[in-house]
Amino acid sequence: MDVTGSIALVTGANRGIGRTFVDELLARGAAKVYATARRPELIEMSDSRVEVLRLDLLDAQSVTDAAAAAPDVTLLVNNAGIATRTNLLTDALDTIRLELDTHLFGTLGVIRAFAPVLASNGGGAIVNILSVLSWCASDEANAYSVAKAAEWNMTNGLRLELAGQKTLVQGVHLGAADTDMMAGSDVPKIDPADVARASLDGLQSDAIEVLVDDASRYVKASLAADPAQFYAQSLAN
């Protein structure tokens, strides 16, 4: 897919990875970018090609309204998400459900709303920002990991279901980016702009999966090995 001349919609565009997607799309010649957020007043964009919309993954009406307001979209970037730093046994079930409601059902709701829009505009593409935690668990982030694992396989399933309308579905994996969501986490972090660049480069070659950094490449490669090796240090602590 050629980004030049595309009409994109980015969720969670007020900061972090979402904001860098908007900037990179504009730099690559997108004709229009719908920048969306739960609180659209936080989006400050001066480029005339940017149109700001409200879209809250947990508000179905806002998703429907956004799809009606953006009938020309050819590229959907699902970036919005949360990180509750919640485990599975000790934290509230409602918080665990919130992770699933956001990353799985919320993202799916956006895709269901925009799939007919993409079909009517020739198919286009969907980008889902996933995580290295789609493939592994991490103490104090286990609810997020469960939700991202579900979103990963949802991405795979939708790729099959949308093939008939010629919609490319791309999953993007990374370890950690230097964003507000990861503030306070003492782990190596990449520039969020690297995520947008890697994803959009991948679209140029119709890549259905993008591994942005060394962390995602390492964990993906480890899936073929005995999980006892991968989790040895964590289990020993």
Question: What keywords describe this structure?
Answer:
7 strands; 237 residues; alpha/beta; seven-stranded parallel β-sheet; 8 helices
Share of helical residues: 40-55%
Structural class: alpha/beta
Spans of at least 5 consecutive residues with low confidence: none
Question: How many H/I helices?
Answer: 8
Strand order of the largest sheet: 3-2-1-4-5-6-7
Question: How much is the radius of gyration in Å?
Answer: 17 Å
Largest sheet: 7 strands, parallel
What is the straight-line distance between the termini? Answer: 46 Å
Mean pLDDT: 95
Hey, roughly how much beta strand do the residues contain? 5-15%
Could you state the order of secondary-structure elements as H and E?
EHEEHEHEHEHEHHH
Count the strands? 7
What form results from the Cα inertia axes? globular
